[in-house]
Amino acid sequence: QVQLVESGGGLVQAGGSLRLSCAASGRTFSSLVMGWFRQAPGKAREFVAAISRSGSSTYYADSVKGRFTISRDNAKNMVYLQMNSLKAEDTAAYYCAADLSLVAVTTTTGYDYWGQGTQVTVSS
User: Fold this and answer.
1) Which of 15, 29, 76, 123 is the most buried (most CB within 10 A)?
2) Could you tell me how far CA 47 lies from the centroid of its own chain?
3) CB atoms within 10 A of CB 117
């Protein structure tokens, strides 16, 4: 089993920045592919970003490309999502996800483990 705990959400004005963190435990962190998803009220959960086990490969949704950056620290068992130039439409609950395989990383079905989420609210 893998436990994931997100932090760093909050209220920010449009154009501002936030950094989300996700702490992982329960399995060798460097064996996990990590991802971030988000879900706005009344909408399906959607892919935001993913990162390979070593961090050498990253993947982004078109809607966040150039504004968000995913990174990981395998020594600290942490994955991060730096969010810049935030927009009102970025408002959502953000979820950290993990899986052992680098398959379907842009889909919710590609992950076996999920955190509880952290709320990000961007005021316009």
Assistant:
1) 29
2) 8
3) 18
d(CA 83, CA 91): 12
Single-letter amino acid code for the residue at 91: T
Cα distance between residue 19 and residue 49, in whole Å: 13
Q: Contact 18/10 with Cβ under 8 angstroms?
A: yes
Place of tokens 């009344």: 42
Using one digit for the tens of pLDDT, what is the confidence trace for 44-98?
Answer: 999 999 999 999 999 999 999 999 999 999 999 999 999 999 999 999 999 999 9
Q: Is the distance from CB of 106 to CB of 14 less than 8 angstroms?
A: no
Question: What does the radius of gyration of the chain's CA atoms come to, in whole angstroms?
Answer: 13
Output b/e per residue, 64-74; b: 16+ Cβ within 10 A: beeebbbebeb
User: At 110, is the secondary structure helix, strand, or coil?
Assistant: helix
Give me 124's structure tokens: 């316009």
